[in-house]
Recover the amino acids of this structure.
C-alpha cells in the first residue's frame, strides 16, 4: 500500500464491474412492465405542420399511446428552459418537447409513440401521417447570416441570435501602427461527439408515493432533476435523477433538457408505467447536439521581430436551430484564442447565427480548438512571412513564468469572471515538447525523408485551457462501522475514473485502502446539490470538495479517536484503516470502531463533533477557473498521390498541476487526441442545401479506429494552481484542443515546397489533394 | 433501428431455396451473411416480406480446385477465404482483396456470393471477379447458367439475378505461370469501402507484358474493366513509363461520381495512381523487374 | 448448425397448407422456437423472427453486457462469439443462432475475479466509460484463443473492427499484447 495514493498510477475501482458486463447503463435498466418509446421526427429542415394523423398508429396492436404537442399539458408545451443566459444573447431560443406548429431542423420530434416494444413503436411511426408545408431553409452559415436569408424563427428580423464583442487594449491603433499585418480566413466544420452509447431515458412513476425516478444518460443529473421538478410541478424531493454508468458524454449529454428528457418522464407519469427510450444511432446524428462550425476572419499585427502587437478576429458561430445552452462555445473560442502569448491589443467579435440544422452546444474542446487553430495558424504565418523560425516566434511571445497571475486585459471568460491565468510555465512546456519531438535537428531529418521520396511534416500547437470553473460542487463522506468509506458527489461520471481518483484523495486523508472507498456519482438521491461534469471541471471542483470533506472527516476522526485512545488528537495518525498513537502502533482503534463510537446509543455528542457519525459534507466554490496548458507535436507523413496521411510520432506535454492518477490522465489525453484526429481528417457532418444530413451512419461519419490513431507519448510539467487546495487543473479536454492546428501545421511543413497553407478543418484525402492542386496552380506570391 | 416485420424461412437445400424463391417471388429476399442486408433491414431501407435464410445450406460453402478453376461456393465465408492456403496459393488476388473487406468480425459472417450479389459499387470482390474473368454460376428453376462478370454486374447495386435466382458458385480461373496479381485500394479508413480500388493481373513473357488486365472499383456503377489500356499494355515492355501511361489512359476513361467522401476528379486521379501501383506490383510478382 | 430443423420449430401451428399445393415447402414464420447454448447453458425460447440476437440476449436473457452502439455493424460494441467466432450480434437474427453456441462477455469470468484478458484491460487502462469494452474483449479473446503469439498486425486488424471513443486505443492494444503473454491457454 503506497504511503500516498495521490499521484499513484493505480488501476481503477470501477473496472471489474465494467469488464464483466455488470455495468448499469441506461439501456440496462429493467423495470417490470416497461414500455418502449420512439419518436416521429421531422423529415424536413424547415416546415409548417398542417395536420398530424395518428389514428392508424394508435390502432396498431401493442401501441399504448401516441402523443403529439396538443396532448401535452400546458406547462411542458412551450419552449424548454433557457440554460445559460447572457446579455448578448437577445434571442435565446429553445426547443419544445414536441413540435406542433413548426419544425426547424431534420430530426425534431413531432410525435411520441409508446408501445410494448421498440419494434412495435417503430412500426407505429410508419403509420403516422403528417402533412407539412415545406418552408425555405437556412443551411449554409454565411448565407444564413445575411439579411434576407430564410428566417429560422419567424419572430426575428434575421437569424442573428447574438452579436458580442470583447476587447482588450486598443486594436485599431495597434494595427494602424504595425509594420506587418497578416490576414486569413479559417473554417472549422460541424462534428458530432458520437459517444458509443447514444442518449437514453428510463422513467418510472410511483403514483402512491408521488415519486418520479428517472435514469438519464446525462452528464448533469442534479440539474435535470431541478428542471423536471419545475416543469412537471413536483417537489425536488419527489424527483430522483440517476445518471448510472454513462457510455461516454463529451459535452452533448450535459443538462440540455432535450425534448426526450421531458416527454419520457411525463409519459411515464401519464401512463403510470415505466417508459424507456433509447436513442438509436440515426436519431443520435440528428437529435443530439453537434458543434464546431465557425468561420473566423482573423488578422495579426506584429513588429519586425515577430512580436505580437494585436490580434483581431470576427467570426460566425453556427447555433443550429436553437441555442438553449447559450453562448459558451463562441465565448470560449474568443477567450482561448490568445493562448500562451502576450497580446496587448485584442478584439474578438462574433455573431451567433441560427440555421435549420441540429442545435449546437459544447462538445469536448467547446470552442477551444477553433481559438487555437486561428492563433497557431497566425503564428505559423508570421514565422513564414518574416522568415523567423516558427518555434522562435513563439518563444518571443510567451507569457513568462514570473508574469502570473496574468490578466488578459479585461476579457470575460465563460463563467462570467474576468480572464486571469492563475499559473503556468509555457516556455518549459514548449521546451520539453520540442526536445521530445526532436525539433532541433528536424530540418536535417526532413531532408533525409525527402531524399527517400517521402513527404513528412513536423507540426506542433500550443494551447491554454480554461478548466475547473464554478460555481460549485459538493461531497458528503461517511465512514461506516464496517470501516468502509462512502463518498457521494454531485457530478456525474462518463468514464473519467472518478470512482478511483476521488477515492485516492479520500484514502490519503483517512489512511484507508483506496479499495475501501466507495464513490457514488450522478445520483440526485444520494447527493442533491451540484452542477455537473463538463468544462474539464469535475476533478478540480468536485475533487476539491472531496478533499475538503475528507479533511473534515479526518478532523472528526481524530477528535473521536482521541477520546477512545485517551490521547491528544495531535499525537494520532491514520493509516491502514486504523487510528493509532504515533510511535505506539499497538495503541490503535479501527476506523470503523471510531465510526461506531461517533454514533453512540447513549451519552452526549460533543459540540466539536459537528454532528453524529463520521460524516461531513463540504462544498468547493472556486473564485475562477484554473488554466491548464500544453503543447502537442507530431510527425505526419503525406502520400501526395492519394492524399492519405499517417502519424509517425505524436508527443504531448501537458501541465494540469499535480496529477491525481497519471494513468487516468494519460487516458484522458490519448482519448482526446483520437477525437482531435477525427476532427482534423475524418469526421465531418455534411448537410445538403435542403438541410438534410447526409452523414447519418458510422459508414459516413467516420470515427477514427485503431488504424488511424498513433501511440501518443505523454509527458508532464506540474505548475500547481493557487486557486484550490489540491492545486489541480482540469484535463478532460486537453487532448482534443490543439489537434486540428497541429495537423495543419504538419501538413504545411510536409507540403512546404508547394506552398500549401491549411486554413480549414476537417480535411479528407480528397480535399487535401484539391488544396495541393490549388497551391500548385496558384500564382507565386510576389 | 429495428427491422419491419417479415416472415422467415431457412431452407435446407438449393432446390428448396429455389422453390421458396419461386413461391415468394419479389417479396422474398435471400439472407446470406447479412452484413449488408441486415443494416438495411434495421434502418427499414429494405423491407422484404419473406427472408429466405440460406445459411443452413452447408453444401454451398466450399473452396475446391477443379481442373483449371478454383470453385468457391457462394456461401463461403470471407473469413474462410482469407484463411485458406489454397486460395492464397491459387488465387492470390482474391486472397489479397478479401482482407480489405470490412473487418474480421464482418468477414466471419460475410460471404463471397453475398458480396457479389449485393454489387456495391465500391466493393472489392466484384473488381476481383472482373479482373479474373470469373464465372458466376446461377441456379434458377429452369436450370443452371454461368455468367461472365460483364453479364452478371448490371449497374448500381444491380445484377442479372432474377428474384427466383440463386448465385451458387464462383469459378476463378487459375492463372498461368509467370503471372502476377495485385489489389490496391484507398479507403477513408482501413476496412471502409474503397474510394478507389484496383485489381491488376499481369502475365510476363521475358521483359514484355504478354497480357494485362485491370479492373477498378469505386469509380462507376459497378466494376470497370479497362480494356483499352489492357490492349495497349499487351506486347509492351514492362517499364514504369508504360505502366504509368496505361494507368493514366485507363483512368481518363473513367466517369466516377462526386459524393461526400471524394470528388470525381479525386477518384480519377487516384485511379491512375493506384492502377500504376497495382500494375507495377503485379509485374514484380510475375517475376519481372520494373525499369 | 444454423437453421437446423431440429432446433427451430414454428411457434404456432403452421397455417394449413392448401391442398392444391404439391410440394411440401417450409412455410415462412413470424415467430420460431429455437434452442441453442448461451455461455454453455442450453436455452429454448420462442422469439419473433425479426428480433436481433443482440436484443434477444439483452431483453429475453437479461445479458446486458452486450451493448448496442450503432445497430448497423460498424461500432462493434455488440460483438459476441458464434461458435467461437466474433460476430456482430446486431446483424444476426436470434433465430439464426438456432443450434449454435453463443458466448458473451458474461461468460469470461463467471465468478469473482477477472479473465486474464479482462485483467489486462484493467492493468493497461484499456477502458474508460466501458461501453464498447465487451465487444473488444470478445474479439480479443477469440484472437488469443486462435493465436498464442499474435502479431501486432493481427492485433490491430482485430481491434480495427471496433470503435472506442474514450481511450485512443493505446491502452487496448497494450492490454491485448499483455494478455497474450499472461493468459495461460
Amino acid at each position: 500500500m503506497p504511503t500516498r495514493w495521490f499521484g499513484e498510477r493505480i488501476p481503477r475501482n470501477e473496472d471489474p464491474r465494467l469488464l464483466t458486463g455488470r455495468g448499469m447503463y441506461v439501456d440496462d435498466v429493467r423495470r417490470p412492465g416497461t414500455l418502449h418509446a420512439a419518436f416521429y421526427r421531422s423529415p424536413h429542415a424547415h416546415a409548417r405542420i398542417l395536420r398530424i394523423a395518428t389514428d392508424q398508429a394508435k390502432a396498431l396492436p401493442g401501441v399504448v399511446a401516441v402523443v403529439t404537442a396538443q396532448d401535452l399539458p400546458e406547462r411542458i408545451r412551450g419552449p424548454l428552459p433557457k440554460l445559460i443566459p447572457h446579455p448578448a444573447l437577445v434571442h435565446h431560443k429553445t426547443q419544445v418537447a414536441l413540435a406542433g406548429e413548426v419544425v426547424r431542423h431534420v430530426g425534431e420530434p413531432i410525435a411520441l409513440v409508446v408501445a410494448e416494444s421498440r419494434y412495435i413503436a417503430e412500426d407505429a411511426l410508419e403509420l403516422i401521417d403528417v402533412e407539412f408545408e415545406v418552408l425555405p431553409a437556412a443551411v449554409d452559415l454565411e448565407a444564413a447570416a445575411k439579411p434576407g436569408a430564410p428566417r429560422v424563427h419567424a419572430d426575428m428580423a434575421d437569424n442573428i441570435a447574438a452579436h458580442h464583442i470583447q476587447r482588450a487594449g486598443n486594436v485599431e491603433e495597434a494595427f494602424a501602427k504595425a509594420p506587418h499585418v497578416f490576414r486569413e480566413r479559417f473554417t472549422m466544420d460541424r462534428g458530432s461527439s458520437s459517444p458509443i452509447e447514444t442518449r437514453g431515458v428510463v422513467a418510472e412513476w410511483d403514483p402512491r408515493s408521488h415519486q418520479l425516478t428517472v435514469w438519464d444518460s446525462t452528464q448533469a443529473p442534479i440539474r435535470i432533476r431541478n428542471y423536471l421538478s419545475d416543469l412537471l410541478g413536483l417537489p425536488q424531493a419527489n424527483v430522483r435523477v440517476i445518471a448510472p454508468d454513462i457510455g461516454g458524454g463529451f459535452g452533448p449529454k450535459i443538462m440540455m433538457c432535450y425534448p426526450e428528457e421531458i416527454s419520457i418522464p411525463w409519459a411515464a407519469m401519464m401512463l403510470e408505467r415505466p417508459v424507456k427510450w433509447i436513442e438509436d444511432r440515426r436519431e443520435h446524428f440528428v437529435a443530439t447536439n453537434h458543434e464546431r462550425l465557425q468561420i473566423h476572419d482573423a488578422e495579426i499585427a506584429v513588429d519586425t521581430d515577430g512580436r505580437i502587437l494585436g490580434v483581431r478576429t470576427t467570426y460566425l458561430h453556427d447555433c443550429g436551430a436553437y441555442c438553449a445552452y447559450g453562448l459558451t462555445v463562441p465565448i470560449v473560442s474568443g477567450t482561448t484564442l490568445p493562448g500562451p502569448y502576450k497580446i496587448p491589443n485584442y478584439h474578438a467579435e462574433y455573431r451567433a447565427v441560427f440555421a435549420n440544422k441540429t442545435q449546437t452546444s459544447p462538445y469536448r474542446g467547446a470552442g477551444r480548438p477553433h481559438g487555437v487553430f486561428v492563433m497557431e495558424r497566425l503564428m505559423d504565418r508570421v514565422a513564414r512571412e518574416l522568415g523567423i523560425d516558427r518555434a522562435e516566434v513563439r518563444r518571443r511571445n510567451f507569457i513568462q513564468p514570473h508574469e502570473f497571475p496574468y490578466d488578459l486585459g479585461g476579457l470575460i471568460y465563460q463563467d462570467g469572471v474576468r480572464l486571469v491565468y492563475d499559473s503556468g510555465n509555457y516556455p518549459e512546456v514548449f521546451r520539453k515538447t520540442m526536445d521530445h519531438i526532436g525539433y532541433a535537428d528536424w530540418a536535417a531529418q526532413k531532408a533525409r525523408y525527402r531524399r527517400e521520396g517521402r513527404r513528412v511534416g513536423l507540426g506542433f500547437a500550443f494551447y491554454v485551457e480554461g478548466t475547473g470553473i464554478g460555481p460549485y460542487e459538493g461531497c458528503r463522506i461517511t465512514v461506516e462501522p464496517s470501516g468502509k468509506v462512502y463518498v457521494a458527489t454531485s457530478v456525474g461520471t462518463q468514464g473519467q475514473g472518478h470512482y478511483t481518483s476521488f477515492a485516492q484523495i479520500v484514502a490519503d486523508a483517512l489512511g484507508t485502502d483506496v479499495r475501501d472507498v466507495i464513490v457514488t456519482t450522478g445520483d440526485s438521491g444520494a447527493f442533491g446539490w451540484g452542477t455537473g461534469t463538463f468544462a474539464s471541471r469535475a476533478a478540480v471542483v468536485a475533487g476539491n470538495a472531496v478533499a475538503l470533506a475528507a479533511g473534515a472527516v479526518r478532523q472528526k476522526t481524530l477528535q473521536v479517536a482521541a477520546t477512545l485512545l485517551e490521547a491528544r488528537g495531535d499525537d494520532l495518525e491514520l493509516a491502514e484503516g486504523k487510528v493509532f498513537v504515533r510511535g505506539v502502533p499497538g495503541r490503535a482503534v479501527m476506523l470503523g470502531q471510531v465510526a461506531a463510537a461517533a454514533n453512540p446509543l447513549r451519552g452526549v455528542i460533543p459540540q466539536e463533533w459537528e454532528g453524529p457519525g463520521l460524516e461531513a459534507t463540504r462544498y468547493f466554490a472556486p473564485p475562477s477557473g484554473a488554466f491548464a496548458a500544453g503543447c502537442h507535436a507530431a510527425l505526419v507523413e503525406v502520400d501526395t498521390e492519394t492524399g492519405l496521411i499517417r502519424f509517425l510520432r505524436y508527443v504531448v506535454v501537458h501541465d494540469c498541476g499535480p496529477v491525481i492518477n497519471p494513468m487516468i490522465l494519460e487516458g484522458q489525453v490519448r482519448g482526446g487526441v483520437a477525437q482531435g484526429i477525427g476532427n482534423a481528417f475524418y469526421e465531418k457532418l455534411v448537410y445538403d442545401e435542403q438541410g438534410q444530413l447526409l452523414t447519418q451512419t458510422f459508414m459516413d461519419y467516420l470515427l477514427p479506429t485503431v488504424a488511424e490513431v498513433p501511440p501518443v507519448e505523454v509527458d508532464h510539467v506540474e505548475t500547481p494552481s493557487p486557486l484550490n487546495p489540491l492545486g489541480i487543473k482540469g484535463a478532460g479536454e486537453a487532448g482534443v484542443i490543439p489537434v486540428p492546428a497541429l495537423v495543419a501545421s504538419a501538413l504545411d511543413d510536409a507540403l512546404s515546397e508547394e506552398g500549401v497553407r491549411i486554413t480549414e478543418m476537417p480535411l479528407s484525402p480528397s480535399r487535401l489533394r484539391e488544396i495541393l492542386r490549388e497551391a500548385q496552380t496558384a500564382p507565386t506570391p510576389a | 433501428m429495428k427491422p419491419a416485420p417479415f416472415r422467415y424461412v431457412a431452407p435446407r437445400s438449393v432446390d428448396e431455396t429455389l422453390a421458396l424463391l419461386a413461391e415468394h417471388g419479389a417479396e422474398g429476399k435471400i439472407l446470406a451473411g447479412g452484413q449488408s442486408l441486415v443494416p438495411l433491414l434495421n434502418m427499414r431501407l429494405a423491407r422484404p416480406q419473406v427472408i429466405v435464410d440460406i445459411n443452413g445450406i452447408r453444401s454451398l460453402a466450399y473452396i475446391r480446385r477443379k481442373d483449371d478453376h478454383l470453385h468457391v461456393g457462394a456461401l463461403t465465408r470471407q473469413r474462410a477465404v482469407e484463411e485458406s492456403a489454397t486460395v492464397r496459393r491459387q488465387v492470390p488476388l482474391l486472397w489479397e482483396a478479401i482482407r480489405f473487406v470490412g473487418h474480421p468480425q464482418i468477414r466471419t459472417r460475410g460471404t463471397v456470393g453475398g458480396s457479389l450479389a449485393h454489387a456495391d459499387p465500391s466493393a472489392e470482390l466484384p473488381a476481383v471477379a472482373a479482373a479474373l474473368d470469373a464465372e458466376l454460376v446461377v441456379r434458377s428453376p429452369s436450370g443452371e447458367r454461368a455468367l461472365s462478370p460483364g453479364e452478371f454486374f448490371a449497374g448500381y447495386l444491380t445484377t442479372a439475378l432474377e428474384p427466383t435466382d440463386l448465385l451458387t458458385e464462383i469459378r476463378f480461373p487459375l492463372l498461368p505461370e509467370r503471372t502476377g496479381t495485385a489489389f490496391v485500394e484507398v479507403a477513408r479508413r482501413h476496412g471502409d469501402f474503397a474510394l478507389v480500388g484496383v485489381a491488376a493481373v499481369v502475365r510476363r513473357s521475358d521483359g514484355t507484358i504478354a497480357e494485362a488486365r485491370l479492373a477498378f472499383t469505386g469509380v462507376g456503377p459497378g466494376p470497370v474493366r479497362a480494356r483499352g489500356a489492357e490492349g495497349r499494355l499487351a506486347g509492351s515492355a514492362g517499364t514504369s513509363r508504360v505502366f504509368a501511361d496505361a494507368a493514366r489512359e485507363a483512368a481518363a476513361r473513367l466517369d466516377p461520381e462526386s459524393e461526400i467522401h471524394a470528388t470525381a476528379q479525386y477518384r480519377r486521379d487516384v485511379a491512375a495512381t493506384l492502377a500504376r501501383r497495382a500494375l507495377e506490383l503485379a509485374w514484380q510478382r510475375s517475376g519481372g523487374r520494373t525499369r | 448448425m444454423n437453421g437446423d430443423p431440429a432446433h427451430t420449430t414454428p411457434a404456432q401451428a403452421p397455417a394449413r397448407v392448401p391442398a392444391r399445393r404439391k410440394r411440401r415447402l417450409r412455410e415462412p414464420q413470424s415467430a420460431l422456437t429455437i434452442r441453442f447454448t448461451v455461455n454453455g447453458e442450453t436455452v429454448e425460447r420462442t422469439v419473433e423472427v425479426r428480433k436481433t440476437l443482440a436484443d434477444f440476449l439483452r431483453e429475453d436473457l437479461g445479458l446486458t453486457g452486450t451493448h448496442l452502439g450503432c445497430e448497423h455493424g460498424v461500432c462493434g460494441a455488440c460483438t459476441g462469439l458464434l461458435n467461437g467466432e466474433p460476430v456482430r450480434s446486431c446483424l444476426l437474427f436470434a433465430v439464426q443462432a438456432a443450434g449454435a453456441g453463443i458466448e458473451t462477455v458474461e461468460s469470461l469470468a463467471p465468478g469473482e475475479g477477472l479473465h486474464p484478458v479482462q485483467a489486462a484491460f484493467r492493468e493497461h487502462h484499456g477502458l474508460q466509460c466501458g461501453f464498447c469494452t465487451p465487444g473488444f474483449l470478445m474479439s480479443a479473446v477469440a484472437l488469443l484463443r486462435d493465436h498464442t503469439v499474435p502479431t501486432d498486425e493481427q492485433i490491430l486488424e482485430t481491434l480495427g473492427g471496433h470503435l472506442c471513443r474514450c481511450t485512443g486505443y493505446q491502452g487496448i492494444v497494450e492490454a491485448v499484447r499483455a494478455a497474450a503473454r499472461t493468459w495461460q491457454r
